[in-house]
């Protein structure tokens, strides 16, 4: 029993194209990434842009405001890994310290003392205080002397010059003059003290304001520098992402080209008729029994023929 096998071959140019395609896809010339050949993904692995120089400058400025030293960075991760020793004095502390001094606070005890208050106000006391007192007192004494003379003039006119009544009037007048001079000096000193106290309070408030203003301005500046640095970092990140995408396209370009060729080639396999058809016949090998029977039949036939010949 024969088994017939029919094979259909495509047109020769399609067959040749198919060999080229399959050799490219499965053969030794296959691109990396095709059928087990590894693709170097490090060329387009995700990466993160490190801190920009301006971002580092912003961080350093803020560290110095806090009294810290130089920031160091990990060369592998790019993250801050340590900070050196600085002054230990935050940018607002000098203003706070000065404000406490102006308040008369003793830095060793933290308490307000009379010596501290005096020391705080001394710089604001007018250096011409004694000159002002002397001039004002002299003017006052001159005015009082004129008044004292008027007592004598009145006594002369009354014919009582040198009498007891005149003496009493002069005594009272001189006592009032002395008291007035003392009060005048006290008032001038009190006025100077009040002015110095007001100036001290104003200076203390100014220092407290600077304690807020200066760090605020420094922080604003550091923030602005950091914002520019962040823009640079974002731009660098975009560049890294774009380069990674380009590297990925380059790594898979040949695979995509082979895939595109396969899409174009596949319809041709069924769209163009076969140019050659051929058949082969293959006889089924006889079984052992058939062989024996066939042999026996052959022998019998030969024997019969021989008998007829002899007859």
Walk me through this protein's architecture.
The chain is mainly alpha-helical. Helix content is 66%, strand content 7%. It is built from 8 helices and 4 strands. Strands 1-4 form a two-stranded antiparallel ribbon. A two-stranded antiparallel sheet has the order 2-3. Helix 1 runs antiparallel to helix 7 and helix 3 (93-102) runs antiparallel to helix 6. The model is unreliable at 271-278 and 291-311 (pLDDT under 50).
Descriptive labels:
mainly alpha; 4 strands; single chain; two-stranded antiparallel ribbon; two-stranded antiparallel sheet; 66% helix
Record field, number of beta strands = 4
Which value, in Å, is the CA radius of gyration? 59 Å
**Structural class based on helices, strands and sheet pairing:** mainly alpha
Helix count equals 8
User: How are the strands of the largest sheet arranged?
Assistant: 1-4
Distance between the termini: 39 Å
As a percent range, the share of helical residues equals 55-70%
Shape field = rod-shaped
Secondary structure elements and their pairing?
Layout: E1 2-9, H1 12-26, H2 53-65, E2 71-73, E3 80-83, H3 93-102, H4 114-121, H5 129-158, H6 164-251, H7 253-271, E4 276-283, H8 288-310
Antiparallel strand pairs: 1-4, 2-3
Helix pairs in contact: 1-7, 2-6, 3-6, 5-6
């Amino acid at each position: 029993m024969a088994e017939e096998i029919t094979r259909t071959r495509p047109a020769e140019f399609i067959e040749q194209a198919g060999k080229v395609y399959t050799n490219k896809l499965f053969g030794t010339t296959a691109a990396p990434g095709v059928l087990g050949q590894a693709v170097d993904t490090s060329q387009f692995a995700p990466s993160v842009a490190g801190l920009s120089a301006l971002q580092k400058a912003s961080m350093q400025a803020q560290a110095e405001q806090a009294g810290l030293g130089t920031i160091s960075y990990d060369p592998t991760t790019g993250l801050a890994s340590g900070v050196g020793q600085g002054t230990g004095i935050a940018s607002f502390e000098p203003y706070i310290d000065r404000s406490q001094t102006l308040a008369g606070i003793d830095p060793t005890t933290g308490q307000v003392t009379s010596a501290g208050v005096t020391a705080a106000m001394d710089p604001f006391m007018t250096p011409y205080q004694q000159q002002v007192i002397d001039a004002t007192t002299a003017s006052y004494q001159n005015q009082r002397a004129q008044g004292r003379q008027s007592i004598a003039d009145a006594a002369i006119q009354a014919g009582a010059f040198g009498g007891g009544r005149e003496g009493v009037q002069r005594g009272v007048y001189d006592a009032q003059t002395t008291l007035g001079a003392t009060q005048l000096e006290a008032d001038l000193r009190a006025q100077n003290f009040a002015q110095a106290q007001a100036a001290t309070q104003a200076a203390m408030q100014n220092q407290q304001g600077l304690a807020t203003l200066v760090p605020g301005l420094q922080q604003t500046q550091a923030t602005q520098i950091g914002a520019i640095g962040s823009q640079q970092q974002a731009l660098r990140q975009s560049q890294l992402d774009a380069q990674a995408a380009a590297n990925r396209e380059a790594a898979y370009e040949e695979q995509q080209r082979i895939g595109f060729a396969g899409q174009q080639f596949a319809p041709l396999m069924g769209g163009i008729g076969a140019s050659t058809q051929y058949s082969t016949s293959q006889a089924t090998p006889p079984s052992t029994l058939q062989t024996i029977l066939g042999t026996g039949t052959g022998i019998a036939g030969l024997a019969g023929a021989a008998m007829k010949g002899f007859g």
